[in-house]
Amino acid sequence: MADEYKGILIYIERRRDGAITPVGAELLGKGRELADKLGGELAAAIFGPGAGDAAAELFPMGADKVYVVDHDMLKEFRPRPYAKALAQLAQEVGPAVLLAGATTQGRDLAGAAATYLKTGLTADCVGLEIDDAGVLKQTRVSCGGRVMSEWVTAEARPQFATVRPKIMKPLERDAGRTGETVAFNVNLTADDDVGEVVSFLEATETVNLGEADIIVSGGRGLGNPEGFGVIKELAECLGAAVGASRAAVDAGWIEYASQVGQTGRTVSPKLYIACGISGAVQHLAGMGTADVIIAINKDEEAPIFKIATYGIVGDLYEVVPVLIEEIKNRRS
Residue 260 above 70 pLDDT? Predict the structure, then answer.
């Protein structure tokens, strides 16, 4: 059991094929900054079969040390054994700050692990900073995206937070960077072996919205669900994912999995094309970090134009077909 709290520990999520998810690299990038401010170590925790092989990938991303945690109960993600394993590791290592991605898995894991650790948890953060006293300041968006609030964990340690994907930036990979790999043995019993993974259903989306480099989104300005036909055609031309505003989803024009914004997916593509989207603050909170934003809207006063890199004032049903034709001509 650690007798003092120091450094940063990050839970690294992996896909079913063993690949490290992008949010892991993003957290390591931010974690490196936080660890340097604290003057401590940046450690990563990676679970399950093949974790030892994947550990070496984390050093070029900024980690100083990687804890490899494997056990028969960790072959597939299940909240109880994973949460107990993370809690046991944190109790032994004693990090000042513990971070995980605010993904479906991370949210499931973090709440249970915080309970085992008897510490607080600030969920779904969009900002993290270490103050001069070494305290983690955690920023959340609340009230439907209208309020930015700052949170701190008063006395309980570790300071525990989940962070939205696509908010932090990963470091440039340093292929020459190395570190220490440590095997950590967890104590899991038959009582922890509850629940069973029956099957997995693969996502049907052609391009993963959260990881797409290009996203074409439609909003209330489409006027009807058939309007997503032109959105999908433009997306197909660009090899892009299809997104949507909450208004379009609430209207039943497209499935929730396509929703971008405070109550949907947070994205940070290289190019985001917003068609018929006015730019409510909830939507901007989910895509405002895109490298380039192109807005197409008939209303020249639409808020989306305030953050757009390029704005086109016009009827999307006139503008988008021209874009599609021009892209096809250039490619042919």
Answer: yes
Average pLDDT, the chain: 89
pLDDT digits (tens, 9 = 90+) for 14-59: 988 888 899 999 999 999 999 999 989 999 999 988 888 888 899 9
SS3 annotation, the chain: CCCCCCCEEEEECECCCCCECHHHHHHHHHHHHHHHHHCCCEEEEEECCCHHHHHHHHCCCCCCEEEEECCHHHCCCCHHHHHHHHHHHHHHHCCCEEEEECCHHHHHHHHHHHHHHCCCEEEEEEEEEECCCCCEEEEEEEHHHCEEEEECCCCCCCEEEEECCCCCCCCCCCCCCCCEEEEECCCCCHHHCCCCCCCCCCCCCCCCHHHCCEEEEECHHHCCHHHHHHHHHHHHHHCCEEEECHHHHHCCCCCHHHEECCCCECCCCCEEEEECCCCCHHHHHHHCCCCEEEEEECCCCCHHHHCCCEEEECCHHHHHHHHHHHHHHHHC
Provide the percentage of residues in the chain whose pLDDT is more than 70: 95
The pLDDT value given to residue 5: 81
Q: How confident is the model at residue 206 (pLDDT cuts 50, 70, 90)?
A: low
Which architecture does CATH list for 209-331? 3-Layer(aba) Sandwich (3.40)
The predicted structure's pLDDT at residue 311: 95
Domain boundaries, the chain: 8-192, 209-331
Could you tell me how far CA 202 lies from the centroid of its own chain? 19
Q: What does the block give as tokens for 47? A: 């679970």
pLDDT over 60 at 145, yes or no: no
**Sheet holding 241-244: strands in order across?**
241-244, 214-218, 271-275, 292-297, 310-313
Task: Say how many C-beta atoms besides its own lie within 10 A of residue 270's C-beta.
Answer: 11
Spatial separation of the C-alpha atoms in residues 278 and 301, rounded to whole Å: 9
- pTM, full prediction: 0.75
Domain 8-192 sits in CATH 3.30.565.10: no
229's CB contacts (< 8 A; 6+ apart) are none
